[in-house]
Amino acid sequence: MSAPGSATGAPRTGAPGSPSLGELTPDQALRHLRLIFTRRPDGLLQGDHTALVPGPGGEPDESRVYAPGVDDVRRMDWNATARTTVPHVRTTLADRELTTWIILDASASMDFGTGRMEKRDLAVGAAAAVAFLTERAGNRLGAHLVRPDGITRIPARSGRRHLTRVLRTALERPRVPAGPQAHTLAEGVVALQRAERRRGLVAVVSDFLEPGWEQPLRALAARHQVLAVEVVDPRELALPAVGLLTVVDPESGRRREVPTHSRRLRERYAAAAAAQREAIGRALRAAAAARLRLRTDRDWVRDIGRYVAAQRRGTGGAA
């Protein structure tokens, strides 16, 4: 079941007390997000990296020429030595320097929303939470924006200016017309798995409605700590009784007239939606990915706060 891309007659409300990100310019949205998260302690989503061993590190980074009397011969890079005929050693990345990757689903179904905001804006808010809460000296942030026309890769770097660049790119991404999607979330996951061998934190922000991501996500989680941020709109869970409703499947472009006055149809829709979400949950559990569900009709900042607090207590944190 795909999410309806548009719904004639579906109510839409604004966030009480503050505008949604979609109502702000990119500069205003960035300032708003910065105010939300920079006042909170950093390192919370990763638990101050306690899952990574402290010390000089064991993750391979780059090779350099061996310095006699300085370098440990146990770190010799024999492949580079044989290739260049000059002794090389393999440097390592300190395990307390966290590399965080954000895989942002920018497909057509994410341009939908009937709550306080659209899913695309909520996805950027979730990405900002991950970025700001894992920001500290030495940490690096990178991103894959998965659009139907291709994958935009932003290399992992440190610094507030780079963090701002990642969020601005996400905020300014163009809307996607309804129709077949040439590139999928699964491709974005596979691309990151192949490109990034260094252990880190990967936040996958998506509605997880399209098929095919399950196996790639399991493979990714075998190497990285994975946080799946599931973005949900209430109209994907239940239909309102508003008479004849025109809906568009954003992933295929198909339009349908839905008689929402039929209680039986609404019950079937709700049952199918619940089954779909349960299947998504099972797939995320099978991948050993942490799961955070955010809804467009709820206080998403509070939900993230609850999740972070639960992670610190070690009690899980699925919202």
Low-confidence segments, given as residue ranges, are 6-16, 41-58
Strand content: 15-25%
Distance between the termini: 22 Å
Q: According to CATH, what is the class of the largest domain?
A: Alpha Beta
* Rg calculated over all Cα atoms: 22 Å
CATH homologous superfamily grouping of the largest domain: von Willebrand factor, type A domain
pLDDT averaged over residues: 81
Q: What is the spatial order of strands in the main beta sheet?
A: 5-4-3-6-7-10
N-to-C SSE string, H for helix and E for strand: HEHEEHEEHHEHEEEHEH
Can you give a write-up of this model?
The chain is an alpha/beta fold and 319 residues long. It folds into 2 domains: 249 residues, Rossmann fold; 35 residues, no CATH class. The strands form 3 sheets. The protein has a 6-stranded mixed β-sheet, sandwiched between helices. A two-stranded antiparallel sheet has the order 1-2. Helix 1 crosses helix 4, helix 3 packs antiparallel against helix 4 and helix 5 runs parallel beside helix 6. The longest helix has 24 residues. The protein is elongated. It starts with 25 loop residues before the first helix and ends in a 6-residue tail after the last helix. About 9% of the residues have low confidence.
Q: In summary, what is this structure?
A:
The protein has two domains: 21-50 and 95-313, 3-Layer(aba) Sandwich (Rossmann fold); 59-93, no CATH class.
